[in-house]
Amino acid sequence: MTRQMTGAEMVVQALIDQGVEHLFGYPGGAVLPIYDELFQQDKVQHILVRQEGGAGHSAEGYARSTGKVGVALVTSGPGATNMVTPLTDALMDSIPMVCITGQVATHLIGSDAFQEADTVGITRPCTKHNWLVKDVNDLGRILHEAFYVARSGRPGPVVVDIPKDVQFATGTYQGPTRVEHKTYRPQVEGDPASILAAVEMIARAKKPIFYTGGGVINSGPEASQLLRELAHLTGFPVTSTLMGLGAFPATDKQWLGMLGMHGTYEANNAMHDCDVMINVGARFDDRITGRLDGFSPGSKKIHIDIDPSSINKNVRVDIGIVGDVAHVLKAMLAAWKSAGHKPDKAALKSWWGEIDRWRARNSLGFRQNSETILPQHAIRTLYERTRGKDVYISTEVGQHQMWAAQYFGFDEPNRWMTSGGLGTMGYGLPAAIGAQTAHRDALCIDIAGDASILMNIQELSTAIQHELPVKVFILNNQYMGMVRQWQQLLHGNRLSHSYTDSLPDFVKLAEAYGAIGMRCEKASELEGAIDAMIAARGPVLFDCRVANLANCFPMIPSGKAHNEMLLPEDATDEAIANAIDAAGKALV
Amino acid sequence: MQPGSVYAIKEGKDKTEQHTLSVLVDNEPGVLARVIGLFSGRGYNIESLTVSETEHEKHRSRITVVTMGPPQVIEQIKAQLERMVPVHRVIDLTVTGKAIERELLLIKVRGAGDDRVEALRLADAFRARVIDATTESFVFELTGRTDKLDQFILLMQPLGLVEVSRTGVAAITRGPDAT
What is the secondary structure of A43-74 as a DSSP string? Predict the structure, then answer.
């Protein structure tokens, strides 16, 4: 299927051929021909953002909530450089995204032309791959290759940089063909011998744990189902990284909660004391492992990952299986069943006994006993009031993000969008807009902090224009809470620039944008206020005033191991001031 | 050792090794920048780098890179290279063994009298070729292993060495088969 058309037509045709229904973008000089084509069709809906970064994060939220490739379209120069943060974010969190950037005309490249930037040079380290298209006859092929690369293997962002003269030029369009890529062919099936060895190891385990991550989500809904099946068949406890929440139901009795720096006491201690660790699609990130030489010292480790470079990168494992999570889990289940394996019931019983003792510490406990709303209570109430609804949650970055991860329960994959690897403040609102674009009737909530929300507040205008009724639930403590918490831990409680003076009146701000502003300051009024927010038909900015000095616990202080957690009841001022030693202070 | 850790880990347990990697890539624009960017971005070492298109009709290039690091870092470098989109394959010639490594040196030496005679005599002993000569200088061409070239440069130093240009290592396996 080849046809003559202009480069700009090819862009729109390629999007249609790839099944793209929505794209997020911002026009400018170097993409005007593409915008002209978008204007003359109605198959692809364009969501106009207010800053290019918003387009990138919206595309991420869209991708994360649908499993499809998110698409962004921006102009050259500043349009492209504003995309650098979302691209890096998507690379760190393995989010499939195709970003199309305009470029100055080919004969102007290198002349420091108006709005010229070396986009492929700038985005090379923050994309999975990128292309500068110099010949219109290559454009169709490259666009389809871009979608293939973005979604295959370990997903990630790609950039296609298209000079303006190439958009105007006429050439032959090459449609999507299912030919094998000449170099990029990621391994999907796991090595059978390694899978058998892993299953043998699992069958002999006495103190096992499943440590799951974003790879389960990226592998698709089937992977989550297979994980549940394997977990239930074996009866093993399950914990997950921040990125993997929802792959295993938070309401399941085998669920230990999130692990890592702000994970639960039971999850981290189980990781530390286990004898067999089964890492499914996670990458031994430093937020998870804590001090590496104290990381689960006695365990045999199995690691399933589609990216061979993830295996043995941070932690040496005993069995590394390169492959797609769903394919590998399916093979493991088959091997388990055909070998007639049974878990060691007696050993598991005593293992669960240990876990129950850790659980009894109730590391997420808090006491809401005054009118001042505790942030933990705010999230817990939001969770309870939205249960049973079709909910998608995004977050910004900071304390509120960790509280959301700790106190909001996710039972399904693709419901949770957060910036895990890069930690991008300002991610949540555009991500919620992206999710809402894909799920018009769902309840899309950005759990935000008062500092983070101001990083991309302009996107509220996008929500208004496109009638996307996102709810922004701000835990307002007037601080950059996580920065302050670390200043308390590391810098003698000298709160350097972490207090936000002159916060806007969020209710009036909402109204200025044409959204609904709400405020709640009393615990007794919280439920009613949240119900009103849910019932509101348009976008809402909800200013939830919470206890200003609440901190995020439990916590593994920097430089400490999983079994050296700081629990909320032990977190006195003195304990906080002395939690991190000199070596730990140099870390992040 | 766990090289990816942000935490303080005792260094020096694993010995640093030198490996020669042969990286077959699609010769598309930016591919070299991509490979070099990987090394600089992730803090790996490049001891030597040689690049040229080797299969013209297929637009393929061979990048020969000599790198240093502990075994785990070398494994990580290979895995990182292999997952790059335009990379066909990565061959660790140090592991496959039996590889031939050669480098080409051009060296300019200026001198008169005994120094000039001695330079010429040493060049002959090393089987270097004279490719340019004036009444007061020579340019020698020498190919060989890196240590041989290093040795020759060392010997030329007192005899009026002016400047040096070398290509970096090119390498290939022995025997009848392609890698």
Answer: SSEEEE-SSHHHHHHHHHHHHHHHSSPEEEEE
Count CB atoms within 10 A of the CB of residue B129.
12
Whether omega for the bond prior to residue A125 falls within 30 degrees of 0, making it cis, is no
Q: What is the pLDDT along chain B (179 residues), one digit of tens a residue?
A: 344 444 444 555 678 999 999 999 999 999 999 999 999 999 999 999 999 999 999 999 999 999 999 999 999 999 999 999 999 999 999 998 789 999 999 999 999 999 999 999 999 999 999 999 999 999 999 999 999 999 999 999 999 999 999 999 999 999 998 87
- Would you call B82 and A309 a contact, using CB atoms and an 8 Å cutoff? yes
B30 contacts A293? CB cut-off 8 A: no
Q: Which fold has domain A375-545?
A: Rossmann fold (3.40.50)
Output the CATH code of domain A192-359: 3.40.50.1220
Q: Encode pLDDT of A59-97 as tens digits.
A: 999 999 999 999 999 999 999 999 999 999 999 999 999
A10 Cβ partners below 8 Å, 6+ apart?
A136, A139, A140, A143, A171, A173
Q: What is the pLDDT of residues A264-297, one digit of tens each?
A: 999 999 999 999 999 999 999 999 998 899 999 9
Task: Give the chain B residue whose CA is nearest to the CA of A557.
Answer: B7
The domain total for chain B is 2
Structural domain range at position B167: 100-173
Q: ipTM value of the model?
A: 0.90
Contact B82 A125 (CB under 8 A): no
Beta bridge partners of A392: A444
In A407-470, DSSP assigns E strands to 416-417, 443-449
pTM of the complete model: 0.95
Tell me which of B96, B128, B153 is where a domain ends: B96
User: What ranges do the domains of chain A cover?
Assistant: 2-174, 192-359, 375-545
**Residue of A313, A315, A558 to mutate when probing chain B, most B C-beta within 10 A:** A313
Residue A200's contacts (CB-CB under 8 Å, 6 or more residues apart) are A339
Q: Chain A residues with CB inside 8 Å of B84's CB? A: 129
Please state, in angstroms and rounded to a whole number, the distance separating the CA atoms of residues B142 and B156.
13
